[in-house]
Design goal:
By secondary structure, the chain is of the alpha/beta class. Helix content is 38%, strand content 19%. The chain has two domains: 240 residues, 3-Layer(aba) Sandwich (Rossmann fold), CATH 3.40.50; 73 residues, Ubiquitin-like (UB roll) (Roll), CATH 3.10.20.30. The protein has 14 helices and 15 strands. Bound molecules: guanosine-5'-diphosphate (GDP) and magnesium ion (MG).
């Protein structure tokens, strides 16, 4: 079973740019064979994290990606992106599209909270003049909405549930809690961490007061569904001051990325129609043929270039990368069958890039490649480090790995 696909959910109130971000992030101009990429359903699509491709690191001229894309020396590894229904106050009580929203949220591994940094939408998402609404308020109210929902789900019928726990050994207590929240894509290790960090480890859940239960559910939400702030609409002048202030307040506890989804969308569309050459995540782009551009297009592109110069890009790719690579701590590894050609058995060079959790072992990786391979696991050969390792080896970012197995296929 290949590694589970990471799910990132775009959350936020209405009119902040979720759909613009979603459309931009899932619009990739690349020749892809038989891949169910781009939009899976109206609000589920494939976006990518971007890493230097191993073929560049290893000094090879090119590669033959199958499960991912290589553009300009960067490997784009797919993740699933949800454009979640707009969230409004009271959604956790089923207001608006509350229930649909919460269903989408259940599955997410990480949340991209899209915020209108220009402050041109009020609490309910209605347009107002730029600078009118305080984005910090938006950040806090959406977060507490999510926390409320989460608390409601986890603490349902808690009194009865927790009494049953009190007679069990601690290990079993943790397992029962983990089982209770497994439908929210929460793993046991998340539960363990949240209990430890709230100093509730080893205590009797039946004796927790309401505030201790709240402390636990809040921490569990933060651990299992971390939020990254997408400070969107940074191209609007009023956004600048808001960003400085919000960043100053949040920087120690949140990843906050300045973004213009609008500019990224414009660039990806221009790239698709062949007007510019642009690799998502780059700090600049190139006009392919000046003579095909109208004066209006030219000046629009210049404005975008100016923005990118200031921020190092449009921020869309950066937000995805920070969420998946930094906040979730995922790494990219390249399994190969043929260690000398760095290829699969058909000679495709570096065909697959797997996005896996940091700390994944060589044995776990072999299970993701093929269960048969894992059954006969003998050792792994880390090609880029020229090192033979055992089942417990923890993979590092950029590893090219050949599994040596008694049951190897082919
Ligand atoms: N200036 C600016 N406008 C944006 C940006 N992203 C989205 N918008 C505009 O904000 C409005 C709402 O965008 P939409 O993506 O539909 O928001 P959603 O309701 O959160 O999905 C549209 O008019 C967009 O063009 C951005 O980065 N900059
Ligand atoms: Mg939308």
């Amino acid at each position: 079973m290949p590694p589970p696909t990471v799910l990132a959910g775009l959350v936020g109130k209405t009119n902040v740019g979720k759909t613009t971000f979603f459309t931009a992030a899932t619009l990739v101009d690349a020749k892809i064979e038989n891949r169910p990429f781009v939009t899976i359903s109206p609000n589920v699509g494939v976006a990518y994290v971007r890493k230097r491709c191993a073929h560049v690191e290893l000094g090879l001229p090119s590669c033959d990606p199958k499960n991912s894309i290589c553009l300009g020396g960067y490997r784009f590894v797919p993740v699933k992106l949800y454009d979640v229904a707009g969230l409004i106050k009271g959604a956790h009580r089923g207001r608006g599209l509350g229930n649909k929203f919460m269903d989408d949220l259940r599955q997410a591994d990480v949340l991209l909270h899209v915020v209108d940094m220009a402050g041109e939408t009020d609490e309910e998402g209605n347009p107002v003049r730029p600078g009118y609404y305080d984005p910090l308020e938006e950040i806090e109210s959406i977060e507490s909405e999510i926390d409320e929902w989460f608390h409601g789900v986890v603490s349902r019928d808690w009194t009865r549930f927790s009494r049953e726990l009190d007679v069990l050994p601690w290990d079993e207590v943790v397992s029962r809690i983990a089982r209770r929240v497994s439908g929210l894509s929460i793993r046991r290790e998340h539960v363990v961490r949240a209990l430890r960090e709230t100093k509730l480890e080893g205590t009797r859940p039946g004796s927790w007061r309401e505030e201790e239960l709240r402390l636990f559910t809040k921490r569990l939400r933060e651990v299992a569904k971390p939020l990254v702030v997408v400070a969107n609409k940074m191209d609007v002048p009023e956004a600048e001051d808001n960003f400085k202030r919000v960043y100053g307040i949040l920087k120690d506890r949140r990843v906050v990325v300045p973004v213009s989804s609008l500019y990224e969308l414009a660039l990806r569309r221009a790239a698709r129609s062949g007007l510019v050459s642009y690799i998502p995540g780059d700090g600049d782009f190139r006009v392919v043929d000046e003579s095909r551009l109208t004066a209006k297009q030219k000046s629009a592109l210049e404005v975008i270039r100016e923005f990118m110069r200031k921020h190092g890009g449009t921020g869309v790719q950066e937000a995805l990368n920070r969420a998946v690579l930094d906040v979730l701590g995922m790494v990219v590894v390249y399994p190969v069958e043929n260690a000398s050609k760095l290829s699969d058995r058909h000679g495709n060079v570096l065909p697959d890039a797997y996005l896996v959790r940091e700390g994944t072992t060589a044995l776990e990786l072999s299970e993701m490649i093929h269960t048969e391979l894992a059954k006969g696991f003998i050792a792994a050969y880390v090609v880029n480090r020229d090192k033979r390792v055992g089942a417990d080896y923890r993979v590092s970012d950029g590893d090219v790995i050949k599994i040596v197995s008694a049951t190897a296929r082919g």
